[in-house]
């Protein structure tokens, strides 16, 4: 069994002033190694506190660190980069990243559904490839999400177990697209919704999502300190680079056929 801890960056709105992208970062941990992973994240948290002056009561939430973390902006970028490298150094952890670029999406597109459907679909694919053969191939997975939009996510997961339309491209000379149904098969139960203050795993997922968002729409301070390039590079060894991901390992949803 695997657990995927997920946090978001950006928003799902389409009105003026909304974020240009909605990002999901998923941290995948095998349940058999959960205790060891939590200990390593706790040790990483202590190490970051000692090295950068992060207070013991502070969450490892990237946007908070950039607003009011220890030191100047360059030091805060270095802190986030070190945290992402520390996550990538935990060999049993893997990361799935999804970004919904809103600009070219049809007006009727539900951004929340598009992002979460892609993220859960990639997790389901990872589970399908992770153990067993034949009729009972694959393994099961469980989702733990930050406490936002809980009812909406629960409803979506139920729906995706019945129907998850996926675009498939085929043809060589003349590219064609067909839609087929790939419902979730390996993601069990409804997501557990966890307050990030109580979970280092959720905080680590937040850092992963922030790394992607800063590549999509970097703040002036992050860009000035090259965090938009450094963050995903630091996380790189942990990212699952499945089919359809870009060169950074991020699955991009940006049009009706994504």
UniProtKB/TrEMBL annotation:
<dbReference type="Pfam" id="PF12686">
    <property type="entry name" value="DUF3800"/>
</dbReference>
<protein>
    <submittedName>
        <fullName>DUF3800 domain-containing protein</fullName>
    </submittedName>
</protein>
<dbReference type="InterPro" id="IPR024524">
    <property type="entry name" value="DUF3800"/>
</dbReference>
């Amino acid at each position: 069994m695997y657990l995927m801890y997920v946090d978001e960056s950006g928003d799902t709105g389409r009105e003026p002033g909304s974020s240009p992208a909605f990002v999901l970062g998923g941290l995948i941990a095998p349940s058999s190694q959960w205790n060891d992973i939590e200990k390593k994240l706790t040790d990483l948290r202590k190490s970051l506190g000692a090295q950068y002056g992060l207070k013991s009561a502070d969450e490892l939430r990237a946007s908070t660190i950039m607003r009011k973390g220890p030191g100047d902006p360059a030091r805060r970028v270095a802190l986030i980069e070190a945290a992402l490298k520390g996550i990538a150094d935990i060999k049993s952890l893997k990361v799935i990243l999804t970004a919904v670029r809103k600009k070219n999406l049809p007006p009727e597109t539900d951004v929340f559904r598009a992002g979460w459907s892609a993220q859960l679909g990639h997790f389901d694919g990872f589970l399908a490839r992770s153990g067993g053969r034949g009729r009972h191939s694959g393994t099961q997975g469980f989702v733990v999400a930050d406490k936002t939009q809980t009812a909406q996510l629960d409803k979506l997961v139920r729906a995706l177990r019945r129907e998850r339309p996926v675009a498939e491209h085929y043809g060589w000379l003349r590219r064609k697209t067909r839609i087929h149904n790939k419902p979730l098969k390996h993601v069990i139960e409804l997501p557990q919704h966890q307050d990030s203050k109580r979970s280092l795993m959720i905080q680590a997922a937040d850092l992963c999502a922030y790394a992607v968002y800063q590549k999509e729409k970097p703040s002036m301070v992050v860009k000035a300190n090259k965090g938009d390039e450094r963050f995903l590079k630091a996380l790189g060894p942990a990212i699952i680079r499945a089919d359809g991901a870009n060169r950074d390992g991020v699955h991009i949803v940006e049009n009706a056929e994504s």
